[in-house]
Amino acid sequence: MITMRRLGSTDLEITPIGLGCMQFAGQGIVTQFYRPLDQDTIGSIVRAAHQGGVNWFDTAEMYGRGHSERALTSALTSIGVTPGQVRVSTKWAPLGRTAANIGRTIDARLTALQGFPIDLYQIHEPHGSLSSITRQVRAMAELRTAGKIAAVGVSNFSARQMELADEILRAHGLRLASNQVQISLLHRAIEHNGVLETARRLGVTLIAFSPLRSGLLTGKFHATPELMRTVRPIRRTLGGFSARTLTRTAPLIDELRAIADAYGAVPAQVALAWLLTHYSETVVAIPGASSPTQATASSEAMNLHLTDAELDRLDTLSAAQH
Ligand SMILES: NC(=O)c1ccc[n+]([C@@H]2O[C@H](COP(=O)([O-])OP(=O)(O)OC[C@H]3O[C@@H](n4cnc5c(N)ncnc54)[C@H](OP(=O)(O)O)[C@@H]3O)[C@@H](O)[C@H]2O)c1
C-alpha cells in the first residue's frame, strides 16, 4: 500500500516516486546525457513504472523539443492509460525567450501531450529568459487562471526565487506548488542553501531530480569502473563521474549494498528509500530509467522501509561527502 503525497497545497495526490522522462528525449542536446531509446523500450519503461504503482510522469519541452512529451503520452495510450488516470508534469524552456512565449506556446505543449492535461507546469530554470522571473510567473498564473494548467511549479530556483514566485502567485490567489531541484545522498545542497527550509515554510513540494546521482548511487560504476567510459560526456561531467569519485563514495555504496542485500533489494532502491524518508512529506523523487527493470526497481522502492539505524548509518556516510 503506497501512501500518496500532496503536491504543494494543491489537491493533487502523487506517489512519492514519479518517472523522470529526460531519457525519452530522442533528439537534441539532452541526448548528450542519455542515449536515445526506441519507442518500444519507452513503452515498456512506462508500463513497468505504471504497474509498479507510479501515478505521475515528469517531462519537459526541452527534452527533444517535445519528443519526450509525445513519446510519453504515446506510451501511456498504448498501454491503455487514458488522460486523467495519471498525472503529467512538463516544463517551459526559458532560454532566449520572453515571458510572452509562455502563453504563445502552451497550445503546442498540449498538442505534444496528445490529450493528456498539464497537471503541473514548471519554469525549467531561473536563468536564460529575456524577461524577469516576475513576468514569467505572472504568465504562468494567467495560464492557471485560464484553466490551461492545474498547478504552477518552478525548477532550479533558489530559496529567494521561490519566495518571489510564491508571492507573485499569491497576488493571483494561487500558491507555488513545487520546485524541482537536484537531491540525493550525494547532493544535499537543499539542507544548506535555504531551499528545504523555505519549501517547508511555504508548503512547497521539492521534486528531487537525479535522485540516483545520474546512476552513481546504483553501485554499478563502483562494481565495474570501465562502465564509466560508456557514459556520455555531459552526464559524466555533471554527475562527477571519475575514479576519484568512485574511491571517495565507496564506503557509502558498500553500505547501500549491505542494506540492499538484507532486504533482497538493490542499492538504487535503498538510496531512494532513504531520500523519501529523510525529508518526509516535503520531497518526492523522479528517477530516470533506461530499461523496464530499472523502472520496476525504482517504483518498488516505495515499499521499502528502512530502520532508524540504517537511515542513520546512510546519513552519516553521506554527510561525510559534503
Ligand atoms: N529540472 C532539471 O533541471 C532536471 C535536470 C536533470 C534531470 N531532471 C529530471 O530528473 C530525472 C532523473 O534524473 P537523471 O536521469 O539525471 O538521474 P537519475 O535518476 O539519478 O539516474 C537515472 C539513470 O540511472 C541509471 N539507473 C536507474 N535505475 C537503475 C537501476 N535500478 N540499476 C542500475 N542503473 C539504474 C540509468 O542509467 P543508465 O543509462 O546507465 O542505464 C538511468 O538512466 C530525469 O529523467 C529528468 O526528468 C531534471
Give structural attributes:
322 residues; alpha/beta; TIM Barrel; 8-stranded parallel β-sheet; two-stranded antiparallel ribbon; 12 helices; binds NADP nicotinamide-adenine-dinucleotide phosphate
CATH homology superfamily: NADP-dependent oxidoreductase domain
Question: What small ligands are held by the chains?
Answer: NADP nicotinamide-adenine-dinucleotide phosphate
- Main sheet, how many strands, which sense, barrel? 8 strands, parallel
Major beta sheet, strand line-up:
3-4-5-6-7-8-9-10
Q: From the 3D coordinates, which CATH architecture would you assign?
A: Alpha-Beta Barrel
The CATH class: Alpha Beta
Q: What's the N-to-C terminus distance? A: 34 Å
Helical stretch tally: 12
- What is the β-strand count? 10
CATH topology: TIM Barrel
Order of helices and strands: EEEHEHEHEHEHEHEHHHHEHH
Rounded mean pLDDT score: 96
Helix content: 40-55%
Kindly name the structural category. Answer: alpha/beta
Poorly predicted spans? none
- The global form is globular
Number of discrete domains: 1
**Strand percentage:** 5-15%
What is the radius of gyration?
19 Å
* Oligomer type: single chain
